[in-house]
Amino acid sequence: MPPPRPADAGRREESVPDFPTPRSDGPRIRELAEIGGRSDTRDVLAHATKQAQREYDDYFIVDIDAHVSEDHFWGEVLERIDNDVWRHIGMDQFGKFAGNNALLNIQPGMSHQSVGGRIGHQGRKEPMDGESGHPFVTAARRGMDAMGLDYQVVFPSAMLLLGMHPQDEVEVVLGRAFNRWLTEVVLRQDDRLKGMLYLPYNTPEVCEELVEKYADDEGIIGYTVCSTRNNPVHSDVYTRLYKLIEASGKPLAFHSGYHWGDPSFAQLNRFLSMHALSFTHYNQIHVTNWIINAMPERFPDIKMVWVESGLAWIPFLMQRLDHEVLMRPSEAPGLTRLPSEYMKEMWYTSQPMERTSMELLEAGMKAFNAETQLLYSSDWPHWDWDAPSTITRLPFLSEQAKRNILGLNAARVFNLPTDRRKPAATSVLQQRPGIS
């Protein structure tokens, strides 16, 4: 069976009923060109805006996981490398042969996210004629307005594999440079955009330095570790780092990803297979090590957030670890409760939400107290992104649960004010009249 196309790819959208009556001497509807990377974000997300207008325009909504296409602005990041040698090497590669992959360890030929070009995946390259400010900020603001978001937290994209880079010093210089670019360029231009500081986790002492440096930065609302790496999270080398994070009051997030180069995935012959398993694989390992080694007991005030692994793995791991601990309690002597009880106090992001069985989804969400522990995330602009309607249309959630998941839980975790920051959905639609 051929893979499904996204609902809005190359299709005409239904006309917006709220537009004024058209002039008799002009067409009411202008047909869009096929949706692509240069399409206006507001057109790509027009259906989501209509959903917001009908279903959740009055909700406070925080998107915990969207992505900066930093490779589109890679020269700006490389220029901020604070090591003269690595900056020279990076800019030389950027200008001659490596382009947007300079210094990175990604393998473009091994990524099939776009399904042979049939599904738009990464980044917006839309025209910004007449717009002031950085083009990413403009595109992000359009996306926030179109989806009805009050805040959006942005993560890197191409850098998610840096934990597997053979040169730890490259992760350090790129991590520092990205943090500078994020805080100096992006976050300063729109306070609805928030960031999770990139921690070059292979080098703990640099992570400590960065946490101390940005602890009071209002745009940085937490710290992120890219999960695609083989570091044991319970290692004593991270003790001081965790104490600093705990003292800051900001959460620690592990953002999962894929890596077909990992030997454990070598026998998989389809991107689909690797993609399905890898995003849960890394976070399952880190959660297991975190709990079995009693890290919640050692650092009880760290708010742990697990990003972009979906939900299906959570009840599985809860039940599996409880079963093992009850059989072999001597191997987890630091625990005072069952693993599932610690997991119920962690936070998880919603995307990609597995919705093939409402019965299983409901049971899984109940298992980890989704009403208080789940955080809405879109993963925009990646190919499998989820609109807020992914939450509002779940039939088993109460009205309060929907509001919690879409924004109020995030306000509690990240200490965000809950006043409305977004424009009305109707006004967003009226900015693009006549487009269908």
TrEMBL record:
<dbReference type="GO" id="GO:0005737">
    <property type="term" value="C:cytoplasm"/>
</dbReference>
<dbReference type="InterPro" id="IPR032466">
    <property type="entry name" value="Metal_Hydrolase"/>
</dbReference>
<keyword id="KW-0456">Lyase</keyword>
<dbReference type="GO" id="GO:0019748">
    <property type="term" value="P:secondary metabolic process"/>
</dbReference>
<dbReference type="GO" id="GO:0016831">
    <property type="term" value="F:carboxy-lyase activity"/>
</dbReference>
<protein>
    <submittedName>
        <fullName>Amidohydrolase</fullName>
    </submittedName>
</protein>
<dbReference type="InterPro" id="IPR032465">
    <property type="entry name" value="ACMSD"/>
</dbReference>
<feature type="domain" description="Amidohydrolase-related">
    <location>
        <begin position="142"/>
        <end position="416"/>
    </location>
</feature>
<dbReference type="InterPro" id="IPR006680">
    <property type="entry name" value="Amidohydro-rel"/>
</dbReference>
<dbReference type="Pfam" id="PF04909">
    <property type="entry name" value="Amidohydro_2"/>
</dbReference>
<feature type="region of interest" description="Disordered">
    <location>
        <begin position="1"/>
        <end position="28"/>
    </location>
</feature>
<dbReference type="GO" id="GO:0016787">
    <property type="term" value="F:hydrolase activity"/>
</dbReference>
<keyword id="KW-0378">Hydrolase</keyword>
